[in-house]
Structures are given as structure tokens and as C-alpha cells.
Automatic annotation (TrEMBL):
This is Cytochrome c5. Residues 115-199 form the Cytochrome c domain. It comes from the Bacteria. Keywords: Heme, Iron, Membrane, Metal-binding, Transmembrane, Transmembrane helix. The gene is CycB. The chain crosses the membrane at residues 40-61. InterPro entries: Cyt_c-like_dom (IPR009056), Cyt_c-like_dom_sf (IPR036909). It comes from Xanthomonas oryzae pv. oryzae (strain KACC10331 / KXO85). One of its GO terms (molecular function) is electron transfer activity.
């Protein structure tokens, strides 16, 4: 037994003298392997520290720099949070109210066809003349012979057909509002009145 122990201690001693160290499993690790592991561990640790530092810096910069808001989104937000009404008081308020009403009328006029005009002749010449002067699509021209039966039904029926559209028994088709949905009902009525007043 002593001879075996002596042989093992001699082997360990000779391994240490040659730069080898015993491990837990009895394997031998060379000194330069230990040096590599120490340096590699230090590099990995340094990289972990740098990574954590970069993450912290990015988080700080994200909070420090405000987000850029697009002009379109900002405009939509302003429209959504604009007050539904306004309070006008005194002389300054009266002039502000008049300006607001004028702006609202101008906006409404710009959104309706032909600037919101109720001049039947203007609307007829721009929209209706294509069909009602030539009879395209069996549209009645401005002749009494084409309109007398229609007039007998009453103006309200004519207005309704012009506003809502109509498909006649003869195959003639009147599109709603003459095919221009931007027309107001008042504009359509004014145009019908102008047409009835200019029959030949």
C-alpha cells in the first residue's frame, strides 16, 4: 500500500514540476491553459460590462431625446382637441364671431359645387347642358313637348327626381343630382326652376 501511495505522489510531483496541475477528476491542466482561462474570463467579463454600459446609455438617450412628431399627426391631434364651440363677449367677441361665421360660410361654399351658387343657369351650363340640350340618354330637352307631362306631376316630383335620381318608363335615366353629389338640394331646385322658366 505504501508503495502505491509513493508511486502516486511521485507522479503528481513530477507532473507539477513539468507545469501540470491535478484537477478534481485526476486530469492534468497545464499552466498556460489556466492563464488562457483567466484572460478569457476577464475579456468576457469586460465585454459584459461594456454591453451593460451601452444598454444603459441607450436607455438614457431614449429618454433624453424627445420623439419627433410628424406634422400630419400634429395637425390631426389639433383638429381632434379643438373646442366644439367658442365664447364671444363684448365688441372684440362680436368681431371674432362675425369673422368665424364668414370663415364657416367660405368653407361651406368651397366644399359645395360651383362655389355654392344657386344660379340655375350657371349650374345648367356647367353640368346639365350635356344631356338636356342634345337629348342624350333620352333626357328631355328644353322643349314644352318634353316637359308638359312632367310638369303636370308637380314641381315636388320634379325636384325629387332631380335630387334622388329617376329611371323613366321610356328608358331615360336621371342620375341623382345630375351626377354631381357635391350639389346641394337648394342648387338642384334652383336649376330645375331655371330649366322650367326657359322652356321653348
Amino acid at each position: 500500500m505504501q508503495a502505491g501511495q509513493t508511486g502516486l505522489s511521485c507522479a503528481l510531483y513530477s507532473g507539477v514540476s513539468r507545469g501540470l496541475r491535478p484537477t478534481a477528476r485526476g486530469e492534468r491542466v497545464r499552466n498556460y491553459d489556466l492563464e488562457f482561462l483567466k484572460k478569457f474570463s476577464m475579456v468576457i467579463g469586460l465585454l459584459v460590462v461594456i454591453t451593460l454600459g451601452l444598454i444603459a446609455l441607450a436607455a438614457y438617450l431614449q429618454r433624453a431625446v424627445p420623439d419627433e412628431v410628424s406634422p400630419t399627426a400634429a395637425k390631426r391631434v389639433q383638429q381632434r382637441i379643438a373646442p366644439a364651440g367658442a365664447v364671444y363677449a363684448g365688441a372684440t367677441g362680436a368681431s371674432a364671431q362675425a369673422a368665424a361665421q364668414a370663415a364657416a360660410l367660405a368653407k361651406a361654399a368651397s366644399q359645395s359645387a360651383y362655389g355654392g351658387t344657386t344660379d340655375g343657369k350657371t349650374i345648367f351650363n356647367n353640368l346639365c347642358t350635356a344631356c338636356h340640350t342634345t337629348g342624350v340618354g333620352k333626357a328631355p330637352t328644353l322643349d314644352h313637348s318634353h316637359w308638359d307631362a312632367r310638369i303636370a306631376q308637380g314641381k315636388d316630383t320634379l325636384y325629387k327626381h332631380a335630387i334622388e335620381g329617376y329611371a323613366g318608363p321610356d328608358g331615360g335615366i336621371m342620375p341623382p343630382k345630375g351626377g354631381n353629389p357635391g350639389l346641394t338640394e337648394e342648387q338642384v331646385r334652383a336649376t330645375v326652376d331655371w330649366m322650367l322658366g326657359n322652356l321653348k
